[in-house]
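Quick start: read one record
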Amino acid sequence: MGHHSKVQLEAISGSLALSLYTVSIEWLFYGIYLVLFVFCLRTLRRPRPSRMTYRRAFTIGVSAMFLFSTSHWILQLVNAGEFIALKLLEAKQHEQDFVADKTRPAQMWNRINIAMGVFFVMNNIIADSIFVFRCYSIWGRKKRIVAVPILMLLVSACLGLASVITCGQSNIAEFLYLTWIFPVSMLFSILTTALLVTLTAGRIWWIARSARAIMGPTVVRQYRTIMAMILESGALSLTPGILYLLLALTESSATDVVLAAMAQISGIAPTIIVVRVGLGNSINDSESFRAMAAEEGPVLDIRPFDEEKDMYL
């Protein structure tokens, strides 16, 4: 066996190992997601009308995300099988010195990758939409607050779908130099999530700061706890995306492993938020602030009071 063939076989062996690592990491996160999703559905079925509005919308949203993540997980297994078959065929070709027809397995592998990309992008769209809706609700349904995040979400979605569909045609992608679109789409998604987390946490911080003088310390601590939860969920969504962009800049093959993890984490992060809202450990709209304050007593209602009309403004 020549030196050139030996090097190629080592490269094939490395590709097979990377494929197995990618499947393993997605198996791990899918197992976590499966347990969390079942718990989320059980939580959404609990009767908590004062703390959980839009229960049906949340149920549809988390169910759609889980469906896309499950589809991505299944295709990841099929994709790994097709990839391994393709690489083994290449190894056999080098060992026995014959030309194998790799057209069919290569085409199948390419189609699977396109479908996985579509599921990945759709999952991100739903996840970001949940963040947008929650921010919109906490800000008292003010449309101007979420105008910029919605625009960024649309840009990210269009770029993501365009990159997946176009890059599926490798010749076109290389000719038009479109391989950079997906990282740009991920950048917009990261910026959208970061902006939404900042707006949501900032809103809660401002209300807690304004209410500190008349609210008890227990409620203020609850606000801080809720703000910490929002930041944690945001960090869970943002960290893999930032890691992917850094690896993409270095053109590292580890990006495949990170993307496999992101396919599941993109659904895990918003599902955690829905679970916390359902358990009453978070806030899903502006009415929840009043509900939480009411539990501490009427003195904690921070709405202005008009004595002449004997009512809250």
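Residues 172-177, 296-313 have pLDDT under 50 and may be disordered.
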